[in-house]
Automatic annotation (TrEMBL):
Residues 195-227 are annotated as: Disordered. Residues 198-227 have a biased composition (Acidic residues). It holds the Pfam family DUF6891. It comes from Helicocarpus griseus UAMH5409. It comes from the Eukaryota. Residues 3-193 form the DUF6891 domain. This is DUF6891 domain-containing protein.
Length: 247
């Protein structure tokens, strides 16, 4: 794998690990997909390299978060505020939702039916996440809107979002213009990793032998397929020769 690809994948994995929005398995899969897009190698090889990149970053973050104070983080305050907006105010909320603002706005109401009583939505997307994780002190840009679209009602939704966020002891800026996002100040993003029961297995050395076995199996399948093609070619040549002799 090229040095450029390795650095790109490591940088991507680093902020995604620190964001706390993905499980270890998800992070490895995302890194493997990125490698597979850039390099000519088998999915098995890509996943092996992805584990080598992601797991040390994951373990480093686990160690780092052990030193965090017990006081609520910005991530926890934001999560509670979003839960309140959805539960008490009929506003669908999503964190780290979709890749960008355009996709987020188009996708956030997909599972909403006509009888749904939700009045609007609020979310921040993955590009925003990358920004405030990579650059401490960046603001969290919260986008909002209504069902159906209404500029007047959007202002009401935004006002509710701002009020609930401030009630949750978050520092918020919004100038009252519906064309502007709500900005939540974020000095440092801290979100605890989503540890799962099977995470330790991802770092198991047995994976290497399993990967090698899978690669061997794939190679054998390719060889067998090649032999079949070669055999078919030989049979075809024989048939052609028989036809020529008969004629």
């Amino acid at each position: 794998m090229s040095q450029e690809t390795q650095e790109h994948v490591r940088q991507m994995a680093r902020w995604q690990v620190k964001s706390g929005f993905w499980t270890l398995t998800d992070l490895i899969d995302r890194a493997a997909d990125a490698i597979d897009c850039e390099e000519d190698m088998s999915p098995v090889q890509a996943k092996r390299i992805a584990r080598q990149i992601v797991i040390p970053l994951w373990e480093e973050q686990l160690t780092t978060q052990q030193s965090w104070a017990q006081e609520q983080t910005i991530a926890e305050k934001l999560e509670r505020a979003f839960e309140s907006l959805q539960r008490n105010h009929g506003i669908i909320t999503r964190m780290n939702f979709a890749c960008c603002r355009t996709c987020g706005v188009s996708e956030i109401g997909e599972d909403r039916d006509d009888e749904d009583e939700t009045v609007g939505f609020a979310f921040f997307h993955e590009q925003t996440t990358e920004g405030f994780v990579e650059y401490p002190g960046s603001n969290i840009m919260v986008y909002y809107g209504t069902f159906p679209r209404s500029k007047v009602k959007a202002a009401d939704v935004a006002g509710t979002v701002v009020r609930v966020l401030r009630r949750g002891r978050l520092s918020v800026e919004w100038n009252g213009e519906t064309s502007r996002a709500i900005e939540v100040k974020c000095e440092e993003w801290r979100k605890r990793l989503m540890v799962q029961e099977g995470d330790s297995e991802e770092d198991d050395s047995d994976y290497d032998s399993e990967d090698e076995a899978e690669e061997d199996s794939e190679a054998e399948a390719e060889i067998a397929a090649g032999d079949e093609i070669e055999l078919c070619d030989e049979e075809l040549a024989g048939l052609v020769q028989e036809d020529s002799q008969t004629s």
